[in-house]
Amino acid sequence: MISQVFILTSKGDHLIFKDFRGEAGVDAINAFYESVTALSGDQPPVVMTHKDMHFIHVRQGGLYWVASTKTSASPFTIIEFLNRLTALTKDYCGTLCEKSVRANFALIYELLDEMVDYGYIQTTSTDILKNFIQTEAESSKPFSLFDLSNVGLFGADTQQSKVAPSAAATRPIMANRGEQGGKNEIFVDVIERLAMVIGSNGIIMKADIEGEIRVKCYLPNCSEMRIGLNEGLSIGKSQLRGYGSAVRVDECSFHQAVKLDEFDTYRIIKVCPSQGEQVIMQYQVCDDLPCPPPFRLFTSVERDSGNRLLLYLKLRCDLPPKSAAINVSISVPVPKGAISLSQELSSPDQRAELQPKNKAVLWEIPRFPGGSQLLALFKMEVPGLSSASLLEVGPVGMCFELPKHTCTGLQIRFLRLTPTQPGSSQRWVRYVTHSDSYTIRV
Amino acid sequence: MPYLSTEETVKELKRALSNPNIQSDRLRYRNYIMRVIRSMTQGLDVSALFMDMVKASATVDIVQKKLVYLYMCTYASLKPDLALLAINTLRKDCADPNPMVRGLALRNMCNFRMPGMTEYIHQPILTGLKDKASYVRRVAVLGCAKMQSLQPNAEIDATIVNELYGLLRDPDPVVMVNCLRALEEILKHEGGVVINKPIAHHLLNRLKELDSWAQGEVLTFLLRYKPRGEDELFDMLSLLDGLLHSSHAPVMAATLRLFLQLAAPHPAVQADALEQARGPLLATCGSQSRELRFAGLCHVQQVLRSQPAQFGVHYKRFFCGYSEPAYIKFRKMEILVELVNDENVGLVLEELRGYCTDVSPELAQAAIAAIGRIGRTYSEKCLDILTGLLGLKQEHITSAVVQTFRDLVWLCPQSTATVCQAVEGCEESLQDSEGKQALLWLLGMHGGQISNAPYVLESHIDGLKTEMSSVVKLELLTAAVRLFLLRPAETQDMLGRLLHYCIEEESDMNVHDRALFCYRLLECGLEETRRVFQGPKSDPCMGVLTGCPQEPINSWASKFNTLWLLGASEVVPASSDTAASDQPAHSSQGDALAEAVDEQLSIPEEGQQSPDLSLGAPLSHEAFERHWLELCVTHREALGFQGPPSASESLQAALQLVKIQTLAFSRESTTPWKAYLYTHGSGTLILAELLQDESEAGNSSTGLVVSLKQLPENKMAIQEFVSVLRTVLQTLTKDGS
Fold it and tell me: Any coiled-coil ranges, and where (chain B) (predicted)?
């Protein structure tokens, strides 16, 4: 059972404080904040104990979301509850940040009041909760430079007409209540996270994909949605369908509300989406990537006469020519004490800088079309360079986004709503692959 | 908000809230109420506005109502008299046709944490339990628990308990789960809600209707149920089988815990459950939420301690991600060390090797230590990597490597030769004291195999004046003496200088004394010194100990899916629960004794209870005093007897018979007259003070007053104690008259 829930900014300001059981006073917040800040490093452990109180917190949107309890409750439950709270906050307020929480604190209090009574979770379903929530969300201001940086997220620049602006999915679900201006939209996102380790000889050491189908629904009344996946989709190692190029996942699980009666034969999942965001299917692929890895890196490290280190990098993007990776950043660890980077990059929109604090060179590429390759040469002065120092040029880490691309090849064939929505309902299907962790050994 | 002091803010808000212009403008009024709540959240004391907020509660605007209720629940305990004003509105709302309003009012009324609240909420709760809207019933059920917590000393209301047991059959699943929760709290002192066979089966049958939170909780309640016979057990488990694959981590973990605990006598079933839950458990380790990932990793680590083979194939899932926070990386490294086997050792080591040059020194050192741990089994490969790392000549890496070497040499003597070769020449890049100590230990122990040992030692002795750490100096003394025993010719001179310096100039007493000790020992002759200083050079059997054997699953099954596994330090166990459930076993004996005593004393009929007091372990005066000062009075009652009992000795004897120990009492004629008593009963220690204060004769009707303190609290025991005391005093006064 939960004793208190509070939300703090990273500076320790109280945004929300709700005491469900009256077991401890407001001092608990300070006790928590002190123990968080007393720890070294940015990432404190999840569970902390002060006197007889346990504090469990998650960090999202730059905020601490904390639950405290006196009993030894299930950690999974409390962490999932806090995650659910953040998700609901996002649903109701549009975005998840200090500003939106500050602006909508009354709404969040209302949510908490309905979600938890006397420390016991009552309900967290958006459908049920929306009957009780009366406060209207205050969305953030209509225009900001900050939003512009997200425009390319789903490839808005390539197919202007067919792609929803990225801000479309970040509005509160209940705004425009009573007005007819609210757009009837539904977003179905296939999101994959790729974790790879590639050995120095180019052999794939590890390749895991965690994927999910996420529905974000703004339709006020939608009775059933049918989502058709690839017909050749096979699940598990033993099962094979079709020939050769079948799409395969190792394990998958579905949201409780999903009906699977047509899944086995036609690969159709049926679901009645409730308003807000929910993950309807999760799947994993381990150790067997159906496509070549999106990036290959060829490095050569040389020691110049004296204390100069030469680093040649050749990065190849093996995506199909139509797609492209965006926001690619490559972090190459370099020997300690490296100074004065000089660089040769192949195009002006790329950037590279030496970060002495992380002892790494960070190379950023805003857009990287499939099938192309980029070259870079970095020269560094390293005082006291020895041959052993070359060992410090360690595993290269990469971060990127692949819009309109799934590594498993999972596709949504169709998306049907019943009853057919009158008029203006819009359906969006979006694909994106994120790098969870992409490491290439040198 | 401008930086105003609390007082000014409160004043300003008060002015605004009582301004009729603002009151008539709904939105502006609500905005000011929001500001009050905001200030409250920020920690300002705005309780002075209570009156204005009570006024604001009389509104049809539900948003405003909710805000005001939130305010009132926070401050009701500070302003109980004003809070009573709001109760009328709330009670009226409890009869509103709209179930949402009814539920809201009832919930908030029960949340007022002030003592006199019970009489106002009792009736609405009873009505709420029978409400036709499930929303109101949910609130009312938890309201019962809140009511109990408001007056913890009160008798448990049996009708409410029965009502709640009945509501377990409620069609609404949340009402059902709330009933379990409420009963658990109300019956806390009696060991919580009873899960008998019909209830257990009812819960199992309805598990499918519940949402995942409730499922997790019901599964935890089911832990308490002991199935009769194996058939029932296996029926139960096969019913729950599917939940092991739940995509919802809390449900999966709760189910797994239930499997592990219920199937405690069947290791094969436990192993099978772990096997089945492996996929979902691994999925949580790769979850998008870092915190969930961490929780998953902690549980995987625990499973590994019992079943090392379980995750061996999946070692790649525990490779650290590039952007993961340090606390996850540390866990993953620990897991990698534990699941290493002949097949994956090469790849795991290669991965760990990559972490050794990490930017964060802590992470790099942990990675090196992890390689060292693996080195206890696969020494050759690890030694290669570690030796390679010395080439980097970085302080923190070299220090960690040398420390790892020391541990390796101690546990695996076969690695000595390689280590001795490797440590030559690494002394320049050692700066921290831990690293130096490790190197000095190696030089002393294995100086015979390290060719430049005397030179390294000499450079340390020459730099002694600048050495800050006394621990390093102590290690240096030991190492010098040991090396002297191995290579006397090269070391004699420097040992002399070292001893001279430490005895004559060293200010640290520890070092000084150790030096004197070494000096005197050397005077006793070489043989004696050798016997003292040259112990065994390694202890391979330690490796068996540290290579910890597999823990049995049952040793941690009860900890599974609790905060304990995530490193929460154990809180003092909820003593009331355990004590209450442990108690009946040894109290029956007390019963018999007490009854025998009853007969002897010829206690009147109404005194025929079964008090279970016992003398227990004797309490010293000091201990009594300490307890008495620490605890606060839980119960005070006037017993209605005039004057102290005639003879204190007879009182003491009589009390002894009913298992109450008299610690001290004043002489008969003194005023005020006092006696201190103690006893053990129902798992608690009761301390009592009897006081007859004549000086306050104004209200002489009070007579003899008893004050009780208790550790831990237990209402029942207090009542029993008082009734026993009363009967004893009655008997005595009757005898006296």
Answer: none
Polymer length of chain A: 442
Taking the Cβ of residue B35 and every Cβ of chain A, the question of whether any pair is shorter than 8 Å is answered with: no
Residues 6+ apart with CB under 8 A from B91: B105, B109, B120, B124
Spatial neighbors of B349 by CB under 8 A, at least 6 apart, are B371, B374, B378, B381, B382, B385
Test the B interface: residue of A1, A3, A30, A79 with most B CBs within 10 Å: A79
Four-residue CA torsion sign, B38, B44, B47, B52: negative
pLDDT tens digits along B193-249: 889 999 999 999 999 889 899 999 999 999 989 888 889 999 999 999 888 888 889
pLDDT reported for residue B734:
64
At CB < 8 A and 24+ separation, what contacts does A113-116 make? Answer: A113/A18, A113/B66, A113/B70, A113/B107, A115/A85, A115/A88, A116/A2, A116/A5, A116/A20
Number of Cα atoms under 13 Å in the Cβ half of residue B561: 25
CATH class of residue range A185-291+405-440: mainly beta
End-to-end CA distance of chain B: 76
Q: Is domain B578-736 given the CATH code 3.40.50.300 in the classification?
A: no
ipTM for the whole complex: 0.84
Amino acid identity for residue B689 in this structure: E
Q: Is B98 on the interface with A (CB under 8 A)?
A: no
Superfamily of domain A295-403: Mu homology domain, subdomain B (2.60.40.1170)
Q: Do domains B2-222 and B578-736 have the same CATH topology?
A: no
Is-contact B345 B374, C-beta < 8 A?
yes
Q: Which of A45, A72, A287 sits opposite B562 (nearest CB)?
A: A72
Contact state of B325 with A43 under an 8 Å Cβ cutoff = yes
Asked if A216 and A276 count as a contact pair (C-beta separation under 8 A), the reply is yes
- The shortest CB-CB distance from A80 to any of B214, B249, B565 is to B249
Closest among B107, B181, B117 to A117, alpha carbons compared: B107
Instruction: Give the CA angle between residues B76, B77, B82 to the nearest 5°.
Output: 45
Reported as a single tens digit per residue, the pLDDT across B248-288 is 899 999 999 999 999 988 889 999 999 999 888 998 998 88
Structure token pair of residue B512: 């000084």
In DSSP terms, which residues pair with A57 in a beta bridge? A66
Cβ distance of B212 and A256 shorter than 8 Å: yes
Q: Please tell us whether the domain made up of B2-222 is placed in CATH 1.25.10.10.
A: yes
How far apart CA B340 and CA B338 sit, in angstroms, is 6
Q: What's at B101, amino acid-wise? A: V
Q: Which of B153, B217, B141, B143 is nearest to B189 (CA)?
A: B153
User: Where are chain B's structural domains?
Assistant: 2-222, 578-736
Query: Any idea where the domains of chain A sit in the sequence?
Result: 4-130, 185-291+405-440, 295-403
Which amino acid appears at position A65 of this protein?
W
CATH T-level assignment (fold) for domain A4-130: Beta-Lactamase (3.30.450)
